[in-house]
Amino acid sequence: VQLQASGGGLVQPGGSLRLSCEASGSISSINKMGWYRQAPGKERELVAQISSTTGIHYGDSVKGRFTISRDDAKNAVDLQMNSLKPEDTAVYLCNAGTYGMGAWTDYWGQGTLVTVSS
How far apart are CA 89 and CA 92, in angstroms? Predict the structure, then answer.
């Protein structure tokens, strides 16, 4: 599985950005797909994820502001980020997970930087 992320950039507080992550390769094996983020000096955290078995999940800090959606035509997941705050500044990482032989395998795309600043 290969993941190609796009979007990101600089936005003012209260603004919006949209990230997209397109998958290629063994797409049919993907069980979950979504976004994590990592800010300097902080641990990686879940932002949003779509699972084929458990549905949609959001990190507590983004609930009500971010929306994840699927674009099956592009084999992609999009992340619409609204009401952005400075604390949303981080490198956003696209993630896909496959399950087989009793174990999960994680795949990561290249990070895309989101900076929220006035």
Answer: 9
Q: pLDDT, tens digit, for every residue of 1-32?
A: 999 999 999 999 999 999 999 999 988 889 99
Q: Which residues pair with 97 in a beta bridge?
A: 32, 106
The answer to whether residues 39 and 89 touch, using CB atoms and an 8 Å cutoff, is: yes
Q: Please write the tens of the pLDDT for every residue from 71-94.
A: 988 899 999 999 999 999 999 999
Q: What is the 3-state secondary structure (H, E, C) of 32-63?
A: EEEEEEECCCCCCEEEEEEECCCEEEECHHHC
Q: CA-CA distance, 60 to 97, in Å (whole number)?
A: 21
